[in-house]
Amino acid sequence: MFFAGLGSFGAIREPQKGRSRLGSGHGHGGARALAHEPRRKGHYRGGVKSGRAAQIKVREADYRRHRELFPANSADLVICNPPYRALGGGDRSQLTGVAAARHETTATKQDVIAAAAYLLRYGGRFALVQRADRTAEWCAALEAAKLAVKRLQFVHSRQGLPAKLVLLEARMNGRADCTVLPPLFVHDDHGDYTPDILRLYGKEVAD
Known about the structure:
This protein is an alpha/beta fold and 207 residues long. The protein has helices at 6-9, 38-52, 66-69, 96-102, 109-119, 135-144, 195-200; strands spanning 20-24, 32-35, 57-60, 75-80, 120-131, 147-156, 163-172, 179-180, 184-185. Strands 1, 2, 3, 4, 5, 6, 7, 8 and 9 form a 9-stranded mixed sheet that branches. The longest helix is centred in the first third of the chain and has 15 residues, at 38-52. The two termini are 24 Å apart. Mean pLDDT is 77; it is low at 26-31.
């Protein structure tokens, strides 16, 4: 569910003239959405039908072929919901589409980062959601690609439990300083969504 909040986490602003925003593996916030799997294209189209037709252009393609798809340094912001598990990590689904979404069977961590680094202009931002227990390896891989990790926010099911996910923002050729934001809790003690989660989905929350 947290790729829906990446647009808010990435603090999406209007791109510079001649530049754009690209999202892959999610359904919100991008001026261009790239569907790595056919089943996700319908998910993006749902967003277009709900009134975002002028904002989102959906393209079904393999982002490992990023050099054939888009010009280099053409994006101010790239948002991605990559596979959460490396090959060999956790049980793998027998369904091809589900396996590709959850495990790095068709797109590895290096593939995702290479595409983002190619697309981003100098100072451009890359926002993604990933499993919390993979934070260190992703940060190291991003730094190796000159994507400096600038912001982290850990996501917990509820207070008192370990983080399950992390929202991460990196900047192309950025300085090596990182802000760790306050934790984001999904549910309160009653099992209801917290106000922060409701706001991510555009719900009105009483003060």
